[in-house]
Input
Amino acid sequence: MKPKKAKNKHRKRNNRYIGAIITVIGVITISTVICMAVILRKSNSWKKPEELLIEYMNYIPKQEYEQMYEMLHIEESGNISLEDFVKRNSAIYEGIEVQNMVVEIVAYDEKEKVVTYQTSFDTVAGSINFENKAFFLEGEEGYELVWDDSMIFPNLTSTDRVKVSTTQAERGEILDRNGRVLAGKGLASSVGIVPGKLENKNEAIQNIAELLEIEPEVIIKKLSAQWVRNDSFVPIKTISKVKEIELMTINPDEEVLKEKEKHEKLLNIPGIMISDIEVREYPLSEAATHLVGYVQSVTAEDLEKHIGEGYTANSVIGRSGMEGLFEKELKGQNGCRIYIVNSEGKEKEELAYILVQHGQDIQLTIDADLQISLYEQFKEDKSCSVAMNPYTGEVLALVSTPAYDNNDFIMGLSNEKWKMLNEDEDKPMYNRFRQVWCPGSTFKSITAGIGLESGAINPTEDYGNVGLSWQKDSSWGSYYVTTLHACEPVNLENAMIYSDNIYFAKAALKIGADELENSLARLGFNKELPFDIKMAKSQYSNTEYINSEIQLADSGYGQGQILVNPLHLACIYSSFCNKGSIIKPYLAFQNDATPEYWITGAFSEETAGQILESTKKVVNDSNGTGYAAHRDDILLAGKTGTAEIKASKEDTSGTELGWFVIFTAEDTVENPILIVSMVEDVKGRGGSGYVVKKENMVLEQWFKNNR
Output
């Protein structure tokens, strides 16, 4: 029996060995499976170094530096802090204005975990491209980038700096047709404070603020800037420079004397310094301000809007008028260099550069003397004037009054002055020559032209003298068309000479609404005027159509809902000088002025000739409403206009717009000219006659200057 027991005992021992072996094998198997799973998961979930590099580089133009930092192997990257990393990268990348980054993988060393790549991007100094290497290490959750300064530029070390130097482009000048400066370089006085020399600080700041017409808080804020030291020159405000030559005249201008006194009072304050600085200057000031416009220092919004266009914190930008319209040409392109300097300040490597390109000069068709002459005549009025050569389309003057001095925007407007400008009931900031206005009787030439073209008007037909008021029939109720002068016979010629409203009301009814609308559309109504400056569109109705007989009748003599832009009106009148074709106006000066027509054959040559003859009589017939502008030496033609402006149909007082269109009537005149002026509030001041006298004086000066 004993051998049997021994045998069983041996069998049990073997079974335990087998179980242990199986257990070990099982553990090994499970461990292997787990390891394989981990490896598989790692290979499937971890991004490849090439992918990570592209992701990192794509964060740069987005300025997402925190995301870049999260990709680093911090220990192998010199334990750089997030703050230092962001500071270093943002200072360089934003300083050179990186954008449009492109990254291309050249090679990847899997063993060494090294990615070789090519990158290119645009900067403020042009494009930069280079080849570089990026090193990666395995971290707990994936590959991590080993960073140092060479990741920014291959030859950049931690002690190097990346510098940007700018050569400021000179802004181009704006010139008139004769080369006279309308906008250019000038000198002004920069008033500043040296803080360490300021005595009785609070009292001094108060005195300075009063003299400079600014708030004391403005000065305090500037003196509190981080960069300010006791010996710093802190600019406070730019003011007009007192020119000695202006003081040497027999009777110096009162404003010049006031400015001189201000300078002296400022210099008596310890700590004040005044130095010359170059500024944009507008010699014609108010006379051309709505035309020329002005520049201002760029804002943060400007820099954001115009990123990559070469603007810096020291740049100016055109805000209105020609300064804004030709900003790109006038601005030029700053020269710029990006380079690396070492710890000793020595240049180590040039990364990019662009040469300075100074702004272009812009020469206009404007005649400065004529611009000034028109302004001086109408500066006390709410008015606008346009002048042009009717044969070439050259615009000779564009004036809006009252105006403001665009030089004030260069010096810096106080809040008080800005408020005064905007609250002034005469609206000096309002550009009137860009708007549309009720043309009154200046529109009669257009009605006459349409009527002759359509056959609705027989120029010799006598409409009959009905007195000074008329209505078609009782369906008009209490509404009557009125006129100031009766004439006989009531034909086209006399209707133009005497400016008979009733004749043209009847003529409009003969023409009909459809024909009038279609004809006006052909003459450019409800269309953009092809001109450098955007003008409001002329219209024949507030709606799509002329909606009633009364509105149609009123339209015939330039009332109703007719609104016309002054330059558009001038262009239409040019057709009477050009055998029926409407000239295209332009502002950019050409040495050989070649006429280009906006609307060819707007009227037939015969119709244009008839209207021309009738407008000659308006000025040259002793009964003509424009006779005050008659000259014996030069044949002129024109048309007056007085438009009633009422707040409502019930308004019995209202106001009046005065108009006068005047032009040289012969193409043999050496210096031909066409002027359109509109003046608000002429009621009780002579109506259109007020404008006639003013324009006559302008013409006298024009012909005197151009003999």
About this structure: Residues 161-180+283-364 form a domain with the Penicillin-binding protein 2a (Domain 2) fold (CATH 3.90.1310.10). The chain has a mean pLDDT of 91. Residues 443 and 558 are 5 Å apart (CA to CA). The two ends are 154 Å apart (CA to CA).
